[in-house]
Design goal:
Two copies of one chain form a homodimer. Chain A has 444 residues and is mainly alpha-helical. Chain A folds into three domains: 3-122, MgtE N-terminal fold; 137-237, CBS-domain, CATH 3.10.580; 272-442, SLC41 divalent cation transporters, integral membrane domain (Tetracycline Repressor, domain 2). Chain A contains 23 helices and six strands. Chain A has a three-stranded mixed sheet. Chain A has a three-stranded mixed sheet with strand order 4-5-6. The model of chain A has no long low-confidence stretch (mean pLDDT 87). The interface between A and B is large, with 111 and 111 residues.
Chain lengths: 444, 444
């Protein structure tokens, strides 16, 4: 459906046709359509949507659009929208709206839901509790398949997923999980007790959301149960929420690894000043660190006054060192993020990097030696650059391997030990190594 | 369950106890347990596992372990394992095993499955067809809810997911989707026709797998239908497979962005020689490109012979340029990957980067100017470095923004235009700018 069609139908007041047309549009795609309409038309079109579609479309909108809509809707209309939202989406909404909008939302929420919302709001950001939903199917182990199916029918319509059903004891402690497939293919009289799996993978409400996504990655579950410290089931995290968390965390890692302070807003949504602010802190730190490398160079003024050609190799040596360091640090950071590399592997990883360095360093030294012999016919220079490359590559790869692991050990995010910082540090070492080798061999 | 317990139970031949203990272990965790056993014990323990658990545990094993096991299993045992696997897992297995092992596998597969396998093997790598499974629940629109439930019971046991059921017409063309929740909560007599959603999001078999994962990200589906060019349903991609693809693609992006040839094997599984090989190509390219920067420097020998201090600022200018360029390129590459930035946004993005550059460049120039005035009391030098920083930052951010978009335009992976390549290119420009400004202002 095109935006022009909507405008035409609105103008000609063919609201029934419009509603029918919009019924065929996926709820996810409706916010993009609304974005191209003027303010008055937005609220008109939103009111035309069926109750269900309006609620679903609302959940996919950007915060600024939600805010505008809430201010335009009547209390009854708002109540309809909020009723359609899953509890975790309502909580997210409350967290991102300004106080006056929150007030309007809470006014239309009933007392029972308000209590649940307040509970959910207490979980720290990025915890399992903060991304879980409280709507799930709970069964008792003494139920038969028939009773279970009836229970699913009774409460299932409000559950974010009915694929997994959770078996609780009298104290609401999670004792088993049974999936809908098993219930469906079993005989009516069979007991849930005999169907449920008891080797349960669950997470605590306070668990970091990144750890939760790792479990989704490892076990192919559609949902993970979230329990409190007494092992009582309080909610579930569904896989679609996990995918969102994975994408957010990955974007954050990419930004951190490029020396940018991470933001949750998108590229175009972030203002020029925010962009500048997010990038400048690390640039300043790295710029002033690079001054150290500059200081070292001034100490060797005599060396390059005697042989000016030495200066010409500075970019190549610094560049190669930086690239080698960031190759290693990227592999280690990614390995740590996917749990493939652990802290205890530190010596195993270092030993691997050292051997890789020897091969890589030797090849680079030889190729570069050939180039220097062809261009300058200067064996001494070829040896100096070759040895410098070997040493620089080894130091760079060792630092690239060790620093992310060190960060992990200190409970910092390994992603900060990425290309920019590693490169700046490697620069210092490579310039030191370079001039030390040059002055020694060339006798300057 | 600890590895020592398994060894003890094996030694004391308490096989029944062992089987019961292993039943309580999650299938995902069994490969790690087997890895610590000697070859003979591995096959013993594997034989003790229940048929279902053995098949599931097998699907989580690393290729080398699968290969060893297949060689040790009898044909009947192998058939049991293969029967437990989903069709897409069997195809993946065939793709990663050597020819003699594939022969052994195909021998135990029945004729019907062999035909499906051959069809699946024809889809190109990284296509939707290559990651889909052919097992799903298909319904007819004339069925009642009761008939649909019976159909799910009949075939559901073999379907990777029964959450979504697919409504096909006589020609197997996909005409609707109905989820199990809706079937369960509806009256027995209701027709599937009246329950199914007809605004279907589907992908073609040849669609790139990365595009498929973007759909999962956008629409919160548990499975996406895969259709052929005639819109006939041939398979489904489930969300757990999508998560695996997302993680693989992300790892690939990280590696490409650090100038590493991507591999599918993990860090420790890749040999030292493979590691060296994967890293050396880009290092050589970048090293030889850095020689250009070196050549430029030799042209300005007179300048730094006159004022040696100029050399000391090379690392800082190159470093800052590189960091600015990789900040921009990372944001653009990530934006392209998540579809937040599109090709048509090129001028919008460039304009944003230019404005950010002006702010960032000015701040860096001022901070650095203050440092130079304190350290050297040389206003001319402060102006030269300040202007160079402003110009370098702008060029770096413009290149970092444009090159990934150019790569996308040329149907190349934008990820190759990341930090290492951008940094090397920016180096060339920044050195040129630096010495040009220095010689002009200082009159050398």
């Amino acid at each position: 459906m095109e935006i022009e069609d909507i405008k035409n139908l609105l103008e000609t007041k063919k609201f029934n046709v419009l509603r029918k047309e919009l019924d065929g549009v996926n709820a996810v795609d409706i916010p993009a359509l609304l974005e191209d309409l003027d303010k008055e038309s937005v609220i008109k079109v939103f009111r035309i949507l069926s109750k269900e579609k309006a609620g679903e479309a609302f959940s996919y909108m950007e915060p600024y659009m939600k805010e505008k809509l809430i201010q335009d809707l009547t209390d009854t209309e708002l109540k309809n929208v909020i009723d359609e939202l899953f509890m975790d989406d309502t909580v997210d909404l409350i967290e991102e709206m300004p106080a006056n909008v929150v007030k309007k939302i809470l006014k239309v929420v009933n007392a029972k839901d308000r209590k649940i919302i307040n509970e959910l709001l207490k979980y720290p950001e990025y915890s399992a509790g903060s991304i879980m939903t409280t709507e799930f199917v709970d069964l008792e182990e003494t139920m038969t398949v028939e009773q279970a199916l009836q229970r699913i029918r009774d409460i299932g319509i409000d559950s974010e997923t009915i694929y997994n059903c959770y078996v609780l004891d009298k104290n609401r402690i999670l004792i088993g999980i049974v999936n809908i497939k098993e219930i469906l293919i079993s005989k009516k009289e069979k007991l849930i007790k005999d169907l449920m799996a008891t080797n349960i993978i669950s997470v605590n409400t306070m668990e970091d959301q990144e750890e939760v996504t790792k479990l989704f990655d490892k076990y192919d579950y559609f949902a993970l149960p979230v329990v409190d410290t007494e092992n009582r089931l309080v909610g579930i995290v569904t896989m679609d929420d996990a995918i969102n968390v994975i994408q957010d965390e990955i974007s954050e890692d990419f930004e951190k690894m490029a020396a940018i302070t991470p933001t949750e807003d998108g590229y175009f949504k972030t203002s020029v000043f925010r962009h500048a602010g997010n990038r400048i802190i690390w640039l300043l730190v790295l710029m002033l660190s690079a001054a150290i490398t500059g200081e070292i160079i001034t100490h060797y003024e005599e060396a390059f006054a005697a042989i000016p050609l030495l200066v010409a190799f500075i970019p190549m040596i610094m560049g190669t060192g930086g690239n080698c360091g960031s190759q290693s640090s990227t592999l280690i950071i990614r390995g740590l993020a996917t749990d493939e590399i652990e802290l205890k592997d530190i010596f195993k990883a270092l030993w691997k990097e050292v051997r890789v360095s020897l091969i890589v360093g030797a090849v680079l030294a030889v190729v570069n030696g050939i180039r220097i012999m062809i261009q300058y016919q200067d064996l001494q220079l070829a040896i100096v650059i070759g040895l410098t490359l070997m040493a620089t590559v080894t130091v760079a790869k060792a630092l690239g391997c060790l620093l992310p692991l060190l960060a992990k050990r200190l409970n910092l995010d390994p992603a900060i030990m990425a290309a920019p910082l590693i490169t700046t540090l490697v620069d210092i070492f490579s310039i030191l190594i370079y001039f030390q080798i040059a002055t020694t061999i060339m006798g300057i």
